[in-house]
From TrEMBL:
<dbReference type="InterPro" id="IPR036390">
    <property type="entry name" value="WH_DNA-bd_sf"/>
</dbReference>
<dbReference type="InterPro" id="IPR036388">
    <property type="entry name" value="WH-like_DNA-bd_sf"/>
</dbReference>
<dbReference type="InterPro" id="IPR001845">
    <property type="entry name" value="HTH_ArsR_DNA-bd_dom"/>
</dbReference>
<protein>
    <submittedName>
        <fullName>Helix-turn-helix domain-containing protein</fullName>
    </submittedName>
</protein>
<feature type="domain" description="HTH arsR-type">
    <location>
        <begin position="14"/>
        <end position="108"/>
    </location>
</feature>
<dbReference type="Pfam" id="PF12840">
    <property type="entry name" value="HTH_20"/>
</dbReference>
<dbReference type="GO" id="GO:0003700">
    <property type="term" value="F:DNA-binding transcription factor activity"/>
</dbReference>
<dbReference type="InterPro" id="IPR011991">
    <property type="entry name" value="ArsR-like_HTH"/>
</dbReference>
Length: 118
């Protein structure tokens, strides 16, 4: 894995675009909590802090979900002051797997809508 340029012990490792694997992305998106994070990031379109997300899991589990998303290449995390900011790597993912994120997000929205109507 590649890291951001040296300079801070708070730099987080991220895979390069060439290192992102389809199976890793699909694994990351297969968990409901991680999919929820990705949906919120996509809907907002900007970086969101970890504290923005109100997930019904422990803090350590939330940290694990963010790590899986980062290490699979789905999100990019950077520190801005004391906040860890998260952004969807939509451009990288669309370059590698055209339409994948859009289809997954549309299917998740459709599924949520059907559950709400049921």
């Amino acid at each position: 894995m590649t890291t951001a340029p040296a300079g801070s012990s708070r730099d987080l490792a991220h895979p390069t675009c060439a290192e992102i694997r389809l199976e890793g992305v699909l694994h990351a998106l297969s968990d409901p909590m991680r999919l929820r994070i990705v949906r919120e990031l996509a809907a907002d379109g900007d970086e969101l802090s970890c504290s923005h997300f109100d997930l019904p899991v422990t803090k350590s589990t939330t940290t694990h979900h963010f790590r899986v998303l980062r290490e699979s290449g789905v999100i990019r995390q950077v520190y801005r002051g004391t906040a860890k900011m998260n952004g969807l790597r939509a451009d990288d993912l669309d370059t590698l797997f055209p339409g994948l994120i859009g289809c997954v997000l549309a299917a998740a929205a459709r599924q949520e809508s059907e559950r709400g109507d049921g």
